Amino acid sequence: xxxxxxxxxxxxxxxxxxxxxxxxxxxxxxxxxxxxxxxxxxxxxxxxxxxxxxxxxxxxxxxxxxxxxxxxxxxxxxxxxxxxxxxxxxxxxxxxxxxxxxxxxxxxxxxxxxxxxxxxxxxxxxxxxxxxxxxxxxxx
Length: 140
Description:
Blueprint: H1 4-17, H2 23-33, H3 36-41, H4 44-49, H5 54-61, H6 66-78, E1 81-85, H7 93-96, E2 104-108, H8 129-139
Antiparallel strand pairs: 1-2
């Protein structure tokens, strides 16, 4: 992880790996602390004051999955992809408007201004034949 931006990706990926931190909790923590790195630096008491259950606050403070976050970063780098985080100016404006926006996106290539009108299809890694057919129809 030589690149400075890749070092910054580590807490973004790690926070999502904490059991119990989904998109809603993640956004709540971002609003309270600003960055995932600040979340990991917070005390259990500070996390609880931000509205996190005691058990989850403890899980965040005891998180030990840093190696898994590093492995995810290595996979990103090998696939020539990047992580676009909620705090990144390239995070799609329209995506910020949905109810539970993802805290980050895996991007292969570059997001450009013309992508503002882009459509994404998100689904299962183990798609059914029906799901694949419907996704193709919708995307056409």
